[in-house]
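Fill in residues.
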């Protein structure tokens, strides 16, 4: 099975210049806590609700602060044609809960998350990976 078979394709994307208030509002409205940040269709970072609180708000940033100041720029990602087992190993080894997925042209095409795995994958190695990802450091 390839990761493209289970990834979410309908992904909300932030732009580097979007305000942290705008991004937080979109997260609240959609009931999610993670967004890839892209320029066009090129991944440049990710931002979580925790990034917005810990990096931005706790640091005194105003609501108009661009999300580029709160985002993570060193992002782990995988290709859409990779075997699910390899992607699960990456997520497990690095304890990653959400992973951007790129195509062969480095365009953002989806995200795979713990939710995708728990709902769509019933295989033994998926359960083991979920356990490893959730394990405290």
């Amino acid at each position: 099975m390839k990761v493209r078979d289970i990834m979410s394709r309908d992904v909300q994307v932030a732009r580097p210049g979007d305000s942290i208030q705008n991004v937080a509002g979109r997260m609240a409205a959609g009931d999610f806590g993670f967004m890839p940040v892209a320029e066009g269709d090129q991944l440049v970072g990710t931002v979580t609700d925790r990034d917005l609180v810990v990096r931005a708000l706790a640091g005194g940033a105003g609501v108009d602060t661009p999300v580029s100041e709160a985002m993570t720029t060193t992002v782990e990602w995988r290709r859409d044609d990779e075997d699910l087992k390899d992607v699960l190993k990456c997520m497990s080894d690095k304890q990653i809960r959400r992973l951007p997925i790129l195509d062969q042209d480095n365009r953002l095409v989806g995200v795979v998350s713990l939710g995708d795995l728990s709902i769509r994958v019933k295989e033994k190695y998926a359960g083991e990976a979920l356990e490893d990802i959730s394990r405290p450091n």
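The radius of gyration is 15 Å.
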